[in-house]
Structures are given as C-alpha cells and as structure tokens.
Design a protein that fits this description.
This protein is mostly helical. The protein has 4 helices and no strands.
Length: 96
Amino acid sequence: CTYGVGDHMAHYGVNASVPKSLIQCVIQWVIDADFVGAAANGVLRKILAVEISPELVPQDAGGKALQSTEDALGPYDLHDFQLYQATRRGFAPAKA
C-alpha cells in the first residue's frame, strides 16, 4: 500500500468508476481538438508518455520504474474491461 501524503483522498472513491484507459483517451481527444492551446498540449503529451501506475514505485538510477503492473498482469485495457464487467454488470471473472 502507498498510504502517505494525499493518499487519504483515495478512500473517498472519487475516481472509482473512471478507468485509466478512458483518462488517456480523453487527454488524447483534448489534444486532437486543440482545446487548450499548443503549450498545454505539449504538457498533455508528456503526461500521455508516462506509463500508468496505480502505485508510487521506486525508480532505478536512469529513472526507469522498477515495477510495471502491465508487465506483471497485462494491459490496462483488459483490466478496465474486467472491472467494468464485474462492477457494472456483476459478472464473475469467468463470465467476462
């Protein structure tokens, strides 16, 4: 667990039904539609370039994360699909 500064907010479940892959799609859509201008689009592109991580993970000397959830468990698109089926439809993992 990564309970620390700011993590107490996770207990409120504000983002519980917003999958990580949807956030990436929305950010890409904002860039493509040029809603926020060139400077902000550059920042958003940098955000998209960062690997999604649900936890605070240590990095090696080169800045590479020492742990990757996707490497261990598979792509986030698959996680999001399974979570949607379980939380919205009540499907067991075997049914989804």
